[in-house]
DNA sequence: CGTGAAACTTTCAAGAT
DNA sequence: ATCTTGAAAGTTTCACG
């Protein structure tokens, strides 16, 4: 699965579906300059070969009441055997954990967590995070505001 | 714009569109137990009122050749007037910067950056990041692996 | 909110380049 | 090997009840 099998049209399809996940196949075919049938066939190929993984609506977190977001930097307690894998399993099972990144540097993991308010945040820390014995040290950064781009910088050559 | 105008059906629609952004209105109407017409009307309302912001395909970053990802913690040089706003503008203009979070703690910002390889990464640091005079100090964490959940933990009460 | 009908989109098979 | 066409099946969208 590498990018060598993708031609300009495939990259164009990926770019358009990334910026509008609900574009119709007909609109898509018009934009890329093919008829609907081969357009659909290419989209299915991109999905089946794993280039396109899924489609999602992006919701307004604040509008839905998620007003507290933070990153937590975590170091693993190396006294516990197989600590990394156990930690990964436990941390991802927490529904308020929306991202978990294994990283290099002075921390082992960066975890993103969301909650409706500070009381909810406190509850997650006390009842869920602090019960994970594989955690050695943690340090949190509250997110004040964010800019998240919905698409990768795909460049279509030639 | 707050969550008090959303009933159980609205939350159910949001949940389903978050987990499958390309579900048809007909399937959606079947799942929530309404006919297609009022279902579509509710979806349009959720879009127009800003609860649903957009729809996107999620692509496999590695399959598209983006093999280098990192978080960079940045502190702002407070000697420059209006440094925060200038920094935000400049950092978001870099196409390889896919996220920028203003945070509390010892850093001012956490920036997520993607590149195809280490050479590309070096080029971004040398040619783009290091030219932002508002940056005081920076420290990077390479991402080894990630788990990102595509949906918020929406709980439908009652 | 539901029904029904018109307009539009998806999808497939057949044939062209 | 990949494209276009055209037709059937399915979906969206609107007016009306």
Automatic annotation (TrEMBL), chains A, B:
Matches recorded under CDD domains: HTH_ARSR
GO CC entries: cytosol
SMART domains documented for this protein: HTH_ASNC
Domain annotation HTH asnC-type: ranges: 6-67
Example GO BP: response to amino acid
Keyword Transcription regulation attached: yes
Molecular function via GO: sequence-specific DNA binding
Top-level taxonomic group: Bacteria
Record keywords: DNA-binding, Transcription, Transcription regulation
Signal peptide: none
The name this protein goes by in its record: Lrp/AsnC family transcriptional regulator, leucine-responsive regulatory protein
Highest classification ranks of the organism: Bacteria, Pseudomonadati, Bacteroidota, Sphingobacteriia, Sphingobacteriales
């Amino acid at each position: 699965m590498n990018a060598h099998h993708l031609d300009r049209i495939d990259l164009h399809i990926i770019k358009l579906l990334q910026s509008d996940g609900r574009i119709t196949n007909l609109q898509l075919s018009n934009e890329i300059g093919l008829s609907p049938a081969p357009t659909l066939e290419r989209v299915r190929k991109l999905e089946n070969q794993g280039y396109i993984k899924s489609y999602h609506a992006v919701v307004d977190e604040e509008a839905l009441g998620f007003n507290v977001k933070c990153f937590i930097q975590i170091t693993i307690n190396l006294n516990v055997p197989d600590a990394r894998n156990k930690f990964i399993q436990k941390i991802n099972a927490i529904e308020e954990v929306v991202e978990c990144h294994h990283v290099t540097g002075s921390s082992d993991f960066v975890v993103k967590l969301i909650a409706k308010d500070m009381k909810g945040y406190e509850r997650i820390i006390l009842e869920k995070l602090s019960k994970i014995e594989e955690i050695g040290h943690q340090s949190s950064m509250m997110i004040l505001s964010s800019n998240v781009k919905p698409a990768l910088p795909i460049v279509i050559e030639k």
